[in-house]
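Input.
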Amino acid sequence: MRIITAREFRGKQKDYLDLAEKERVIIHRGKNKKSVLLTPIDESTETDVFFSDPQVLNAIKEGIEDVKAGRVTSIRDLKNIWADIL
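Output.
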């Protein structure tokens, strides 16, 4: 396991992202900030706090169903997105 600072990570992102495929990389963000763990996306989502939450999984499933059913909002003008949303 490697623990680094946010400043170190910014300076060597590629190196630490590559390293995270082989071992845990924890980024310590300093005072009053939570540290984060770099995790490859192909790891099991069963142990992932976010993706193991039933509410999150249900919201994702509902979103997929909405898209399949055509319940979406199309944005025609990226400079004026609120015109299409509201």
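The CA atoms of residues 76 and 84 lie 7 Å apart.
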